[in-house]
From TrEMBL:
It comes from Brevibacterium aurantiacum. SUPFAM superfamilies: Restriction endonuclease-like. Residues 98-111 have a biased composition (Low complexity). This is DUF559 domain-containing protein. Pfam families: DUF559.
Length: 349
């Protein structure tokens, strides 16, 4: 989690507005008006109050990957910034309410009428708050729900629907749609590869069940795109371990491929460990491996070592008579690899 701070919080630490401007060229990043994130630990000791929690491991540095993940990180930071603003306003309102109570009912009524409308984080923003993966950027806007309001601003998308109390929960000091309602809303609104990625992750981690999601769906007043929700649930599989695998499974469905089983393990005697593959099609003697973003930088942390390990795995599979198809992240969004798979499958029929 990144460290998010408002101007008031930074000033309470002893900084001035001029100090904040200077810190923005060093270790602080402006997210929105009056809201900042601390990017990293710097060499300036006078900035320690800003980045001490990063140095202690309580918060994370703001990582830049140089690819599409940065857009998702930016949106996550924007959502966290709005959460922090809402939390600060809530605290301010509570303090004002306490003061108003002592000042009389008239002042209390005035405070209540000045309060901002109820706001619930939803859709992709709620998914980020729940820690669900976003397969690829689909919006740059923070998504919230306010009763009776439908508006799009530069950085916020407001939907005017009413979320029942039992479809909301408090997270990070703010209101957000429940995990099940979030999964349903995303499935209604976005492409299956986005929603299936989230469903696979939530089911794989044991955060929810199909039964809970279906029960929540039955309680929704909204009926728009309900078939999309059922399709996403039909495509979801708790065995998949990454958004890239989920997208591949959606592509298999879209191309009419059947028979691909995820996360199949092979016993090996010559290698130090068993081999587990992303997808196995036994009838076609075909293995499909998906290279998601940053895959070769996981594990040992040394891409060359990972490449060598992958080479040995593939050679063992080929020696056993399996055809191995590797699909890169970019190739998930093109046709060539899937046409190659189609030709192989047609040759087995």
């Amino acid at each position: 989690m990144y460290k998010i701070m408002t101007t008031q919080q930074i000033i309470r630490l002893g900084f001035t507005h001029a100090d904040i401007r200077r810190a923005r060229s060093c270790c602080v990043r402006r997210l929105s008006r009056g809201v900042y994130s601390v990017r990293h630990v710097c060499s300036r000791e006078d900035h320690r109050p800003l980045w001490a929690s990063i140095d202690e491991g309580t918060h994370s540095e703001f990582t830049e990957h140089g690819d599409i993940r940065d857009q998702i990180e930016d949106l996550d930071a924007a959502v966290m910034a709005r959460c922090e603003v809402r939390f600060q306003k809530q605290g301010q309102q509570e303090r004002q309410a306490e003061s108003a109570t002592t000042a009389g009912a008239t002042a209390a009524t005035r405070m209540s009428s000045a309060s901002p409308p109820a706001e619930v984080f939803s859709h992709i923003s709620a998914a980020l708050i729940h820690g669900l993966p976003i397969a690829y950027p689909v919006t740059h806007q923070v998504e919230v729900v306010r009763p009776g309001v439908n508006r799009r601003f530069k950085s916020i998308h407001v939907r005017g629907v009413t979320i029942p109390r039992h479809h909301r929960q408090a997270v990070r000091g703010t209101e957000v749609t429940t995990l099940e309602r979030t999964l349903i809303d995303v499935a209604r609104t976005y492409n299956p590869d986005i929603s299936v990625s989230m469903l696979d992750n939530a089911l794989h981690r044991g955060l929810t069940t199909r039964e809970k999601i279906l029960a929540t769906l039955a309680q929704c007043l909204e009926t728009r795109n309900t078939k999309k929700v059922h399709l996403a649930l039909d495509l979801a599989d708790a065995r998949r371990e990454s958004p890239a695998e989920s997208i591949a499974a959606v592509r298999f469905f879209q191309h009419g491929f059947v028979g691909f089983v995820p996360q199949v393990e092979f016993d090996t005697a010559s290698l130090r460990s068993n081999i587990r593959v992303d997808f196995c099609h036994r009838a076609a003697r075909m293995i499909v491996e998906i290279d998601g973003l940053g895959k070769l930088y996981l594990g040992s942390g040394v891409p060359r070592d990972e490449l060598e390990r992958e080479r040995r795995r593939e050679q063992w599979l080929r020696d056993q008579g399996w055809r191995v198809i590797r699909i890169s992240w970019k190739e998930l969004f093109t046709e060539a690899k899937f046409e190659e798979i189609r030709r192989i499958l047609m040759g087995t029929r």
